């Protein structure tokens, strides 16, 4: 099941079939909130005469279409169930038996005894650095601009504030002084997710789908570059 959301609209693509066979898919398109005189719309796609590769290409095209139309994909609520069923399937494929025979128990004990003892350290513990005064902190943060926090804009504001040793409110004030309505992490993260999804689509497809994905990646990357360039002053 594929669930995608854009604004007040949602799309849900349900795959139907039986063990080893995909028969058809049903696409439901409806608003998330109640809207007068607007009900859900349905569309069915028949896969009875389609090969597995053709169905895969259909799903890739569908995912690419959602990205191009600015829909965000929500994780399938059944994904944990599917993951549980697949536990252990790839164990034997990735099994590396070399590690089981590198050392016998006797040899490992001998090697541990041959290791030299650690050097005794009798150095006094380092004192933590003294915190600057409140007045010094205010003077420092008052001079800060978005250029001073540039390399942390891709982080959540709480994580960026810890690295910069300031509070979240200081970063919000810096954003407002620079003409930003909010900390840009979510905006940047949204661009990065779209690029990652497009790359995954491109790596799994070929022909026209791959060319469309490449063109869209270039467009989104340019949008991200323009957005970041507009932040810096």
> Ends: how far apart?
44 Å
Average of per-residue pLDDT values: 75
Strands, total number: 5
Number of helices: 8
What's the number of domains? 3
The proportion of residues forming helix, as a percent range, comes to: 40-55%
Morphology: elongated
Main beta-sheet annotation: 5 strands, antiparallel
Q: Based on helices, strands and strand pairing, what is the structural class?
A: alpha+beta
Low-confidence residue ranges: 92-104
| Rg over CA atoms | 27 Å
Order of strands, widest sheet: 4-3-2-1-5
Measured by DSSP, the beta-strand proportion falls in 15-25%
Order of helices and strands: EEEEHEHHHHHHH
Helix and strand layout, with pairings?
Elements: E1 2-6, E2 9-18, E3 21-31, E4 41-46, H1 52-68, E5 72-74, H2 79-85, H3 105-114, H4 134-143, H5 157-164, H6 168-177, H7 185-203, H8 208-231
Antiparallel strand pairs: 1-2, 1-5, 2-3, 3-4
